[in-house]
Design a protein that fits this description.
Number of helices of chain B: 11
Helix content of chain B: 40-55%
Largest interface: A-B, 36 and 34 residues
Order of helices and strands of chain B: EHEEEHEHEEHEEHEHEHHHHH
CATH class of the largest domain in chain A: Alpha Beta
Number of strands of chain B: 11
Radius of gyration of chain B: 21 Å
Mean pLDDT of chain A: 95
Low-confidence stretches of chain A: none
Strand order of the largest sheet of chain B: 3-2-1-4-5-6-10
Distance between the termini of chain A: 56 Å
Largest sheet of chain B: 7 strands, parallel
CATH topology of the largest domain in chain A: Dihydrodipicolinate Reductase, domain 2
Oligomer: heterodimer
Distance between the termini of chain B: 43 Å
CATH superfamily of the largest domain in chain A: Dihydrodipicolinate Reductase, domain 2
Number of helices of chain A: 10
CATH topology of one domain in chain B: Rossmann fold
Largest sheet of chain A: 8 strands, mixed
Structural class of chain B: alpha/beta
Order of helices and strands of chain A: EHEHEHEHEHEHEHHEEEEEEEHH
Strand content of chain B: 5-15%
Strand content of chain A: 25-35%
Number of strands of chain A: 14
Number of domains of chain A: 2
CATH superfamily of one domain in chain B: NAD(P)-binding Rossmann-like Domain
């Protein structure tokens, strides 16, 4: 039985972890901690766990889930990894490639392991599109456009979205959307270089609306990247992947279909067993990480390219 | 200057309303949760949290808040909190405008539509909550100015439940209707909603209870808008056949019912004396007439083209309603946006938001 400690008892822990971790067969949430003792006590009561300090949680548990505001991820992950623990970090991992690489080094030297909770990789449609692109039938990826927007309504329990330098819409929502695109295109295991050409944001980071254009280089391949994210208003909410022989539109939310467009025709592809909901996808994520047959989908090394793109965009000054 | 306080100012209607009130020269107090107050970007607005006290009661208080998230057993508690907030902020002389929905007559408008009070009844939790808040306000503010405005389906640029959702359905081939059932759209444009509420806020208080129904495009069918969307987005709409829609609908309802009937949630529902078993009642009531379709559906392949997704049932029933929500508004109000202008606004948003 894997003893898991949850660090950070805010919205995602209450709404998702508390519902999706207990059913995982070989996992028991034994300890929780939070700067707010009342939040920790409440989650501890729900999960029949102990509310403890961070050091006690790290000492007592085999695995630590970090679900705190983004800027605290690096220190909390590093401390837990240095103690040799398996760590699952809620997205976004960290704000820079250097920090991400450093955490991987920490994991390697201490015998720990680091995963990142980008549960949208488990969306059935994303998995299916990844398989389709991997066949090579549609040729190489030429451009990616990610658009996601909706009026902010998440029951956040800290002020990270307005105060944390990596709490803006780019790292908060954009990390999800861009990761879905990179994962679907099979670009999550490739070293990526990014050249950002244009950035517009509604305010300095953390921003609530952002548009960016960039070129991403994967080996010798150049991919044009366009991003539009908003916390203010609904947008098209789709990822568009242009390939040599066709185009794929992927929903950013849970649908059971995607759209495939060729030179003269367009069709909707329905995914068998595509009716998974968010809870199902979280459970699949935990199974992938903690299950009896774990795979490598959420290993932190597969988020280095994502982190480098996010960092490059976040550091680019506003275009004139 | 008239002071207007808006509860739920960070919402879709709230943001538009606040801008309209400012444009009309009102002093606006926007009440929103701290987590979403950043959505209100109008610098002329005074932002306050629901927990803050106002130095002076507003002349007009517009409530847009309703229980919209979380579990249904939490709705009565959330309703109570909204009611307490209204009563705390409104003085006896304050005009209260409470924004409600056509759904108090059922999602398909299957109940008789009356421009007056609606009795409490068992229904979907959302509907029960909406009716309860209307009733609670009438009970708590007898003889004081209270205007209850029931909105049709609110659409316009970036409308999350209609414009954006329909465009997404078109793109990903989700059904937008049932073949042969071109329902009444019962739409109201967000611009007209803001205009009408602002108009009401500018009227002298007469200390009476009033009811208003706003769905200025209610006479149009859904096909009117969907054909325009198909053309603008270069996409074809999917409509399912009737038996598929009902069969998948019951599957969806049973699934939702099962997921909401965990032991812990049942205990919480009982404890909260909430809308106990609303889902169950809705589903059981619907069972007999749908049972045949369910059996028929079992013989079909699971993902045949045009079959509704499990979550589509309620949406499709709304899209197919033959009942029109007729507008009943103050005749002195001048409608700001006609259907043509409304479409142009939406088409402009499609272009700006990445749909085209």
């Amino acid at each position: 039985m894997i003893r898991v400690g949850i660090v950070g008892c805010g919205a995602v822990a209450q709404q998702m972890y508390a519902r999706t971790l207990p059913p995982v067969a070989n996992v028991v949430v034994s300890h929780v901690c939070d700067r707010d003792p009342a939040a920790a006590d409440e989650l501890a009561r729900r999960l029949d766990a102990q509310s403890v300090s961070l050091s006690e949680a790290i000492q007592a548990c085999d695995a630590i889930i970090v679900a705190t505001p983004p800027s605290s991820h690096y220190e909390l992950c590093r401390t837990s990894l240095q103690a040799g623990r398996t760590v699952v970090c809620e997205k976004p991992l960290v704000g820079s490639l250097a920090e991400a690489t450093d955490l991987l080094e920490s994991a390697k030297s201490s015998g720990g392991a680091l995963y990142v909770g980008h549960f949208r990789r488990m969306f059935p449609v994303v998995q299916e599109v990844r398989k389709l692109i991997a066949t090579g039938m549609l040729g190489a990826v030429q451009s990616i456009s990610v658009i996601e927007g909706g009026r902010y309504s998440w029951a956040v329990q800290s002020d990270y979205i307005t105060s944390d330098p990596i709490g803006g819409v780019l790292f908060d929502t954009g990390s999800h959307t861009l990761d879905m695109a990179l994962f679907a295109c099979g670009l999550d295991e490739t070293v990526l270089r990014t050249s950002v050409t244009d950035v517009w944001r509604d305010r300095s980071e953390p921003s609530h609306e952002l548009k960016a254009k960039a070129q991403v280089y994967a080996d010798s391949q150049q991919i044009d990247l366009e991003i539009h994210l908003s916390r203010y208003q609904a947008l098209a909410n789709r990822i568009r992947i242009e390939l040599q022989h066709g185009r794929i539109d992927v929903p950013v939310g849970l649908h059971n279909s995607f759209r495939l467009t060729g030179k003269s025709n367009s069709t909707v592809v329905r995914v068998e067993d595509g009716d998974a909901n968010y809870v199902d996808c979280f459970r699949m994520q935990w199974e992938s990480i903690f299950g009896s047959a774990p795979d490598k989908t959420f290993e932190a090394r597969r988020f280095l390219g994502l982190t480098s793109i996010l960092e490059a965009i976040s550091r680019k000054p506003q275009s004139p | 200057m008239t002071t207007v306080a808006v509860i739920g100012a960070a919402g879709y209607v709230g943001q538009e309303l606040v801008s309209e009130l400012v444009r009309r020269g009102r002093e606006v107090i926007a009440i929103a949760r701290p987590a979403t107050s950043f959505l209100i970007r109008n610098e002329a607005v005074r932002l306050v949290s629901p927990n803050d006290a106002l130095q002076l009661p507003p002349d007009v208080l517009i409530n847009l808040a309703y229980p919209s998230s979380g579990r249904s057993y939490e709705y009565p508690t959330k309703n109570r909190q909204i009611l307490e907030l209204i009563l705390r902020l409104a003085a006896p002389q304050t005009s209260v405008i409470h924004v409600s929905t056509l759904a108090v007559f059922g999602f398909e408008l299957e109940r008789e539509v009356v421009v007056g009070p609606v009795s409490r009844r068992r229904d979907y939790p959302y509907i029960e909550a909406k009716i309860d808040l209307e009733q609670d306000l009438m009970r708590e503010r007898p003889g004081k100015d209270l205007q209850i405005v029931r909105l049709g389906n609110v659409w316009g640029p970036a409308s999350p439940y209609w414009t954006a959702a329909l465009a997404e359905r078109l793109l990903f081939g989700a059904p937008v209707g049932v073949a042969g059932r071109d329902g009444c759209c019962n739409l109201t444009d967000i611009g007209n909603v803001a205009s009408y509420l602002s108009f009401l806020a500018s009227q002298e208080s007469d200390g009476a209870l009033g009811f208003h129904h706003l769905a200025e495009f209610g006479h149009l069918r859904w096909s009117h808008w969907i054909s325009k969307m198909e053309q603008a987005l270069c996409l074809g709409a999917v409509r399912v056949n009737a038996s598929a829609a009902t069969a998948r609908g019951i599957a969806s309802e049973l699934r939702q019912m099962a997921s909401s009937l965990s032991l812990s949630s049942m205990a919480k529902q009982a404890y909260a004396t909430a809308y106990v078993g609303s889902w169950m009642r809705s589903t059981v009531r619907a069972l007999p007439k749908r049972a045949v379709s369910v059996l028929a559906e079992k013989a079909k392949p699971r993902s045949s083209p045009g079959v509704a997704h499990a979550s589509d049932a309620l949406f499709l029933s709304i899209m197919g309603t033959p009942n029109q929500f007729k507008t009943k508004v103050d005749p002195r109000w001048v409608q700001a946006i006609d259907d043509e202008a409304s479409w142009h606004r939406v088409a402009g948003w499609f272009a700006a938001s990445g749909h085209i």
